[in-house]
Amino acid sequence: MKDNQMEENNKKENKNQIKIREFDEEKLGQEVNELIPGKGLDTYHDGYVGFFSRADASGAIGGGMGMFLWFPNYHELYQFLANYFVVLSPGPFDLDHKKVFHEVAEIVKELASGKISKKQGIEKINKSAQHFSQIEWIGEMEDLTSGSSEFAKGLREYFYEFKEIPDQGIIKKEDLKDFIQKISEYGI
């Protein structure tokens, strides 16, 4: 009985492990361009988790552009970050893209395993991926609608300015659809 239980536990652990792809920048870039349309705010469902990142380059070449991407669970989000984050926004030609890819993948593995916090993971990823992309937030919609982070507060302020109503502090359930619609434009 114990052997069967150990085997089941090993299967669960293997299923939750972050699998790192072989680094082929061109192929990963093509794949991420196909994946992104299925991960935007228009695909958000209750319980999904997401992240917001910006291209970390000069504004003249698209730097500063940002987007939310959403996933059914943290495992899928971390799997995406480990394999595609570095190719979301190509870095400078003089940097070793393969090295940055593997650094970010290892940090995401630490994050996924709980060895580091989300805050630590974001800081470490952003340091490694400087000049590629920068993560501003990872979490759940509830973090954005009622959380205390500066990023969440800024989004709510952005929303209330658009609605031309006083800041309510949190996004009410009846405003959630409008909030999601408005923040889909954030960072563009």
Q: Secondary structure elements and their pairing?
A:
Elements: H1 2-16, H2 25-35, E1 49-55, E2 66-71, H3 74-88, H4 97-113, H5 118-128, E3 133-140, H6 141-146, H7 150-163, H8 176-183
Antiparallel strand pairs: 1-2, 1-3
Helix pairs in contact: 2-3, 3-4, 4-5
Structure description:
The chain has about 190 residues and is mainly alpha-helical. The protein has a domain at about 20-140. It contains eight helices and three strands. It has helices at about 1-15, 25-35, 75-90, 95-115, 120-130, 140-145, 150-165, 175-185; strands at about 50-55, 65-70, 135-140. The chain has a three-stranded antiparallel sheet with strand order 2-1-3. α2 (about 25-35) packs across α3 (about 75-90). Residues about 1-15 have low confidence and may be disordered.
Structural class: mainly alpha
The stretches of 5 or more residues where confidence is low (pLDDT under 50) are 1-14
Strand arrangement, major sheet: 2-1-3
Order of helices and strands: HHEEHHHEHHH
Mean pLDDT rating: 87
Short note summarizing the structure:
This protein has 8 helices and 3 strands; from the N terminus they run ααββαααβααα.
What keywords describe this structure?
disordered N terminus; 3-stranded antiparallel sheet; mainly alpha; 188 residues; 3 strands; globular
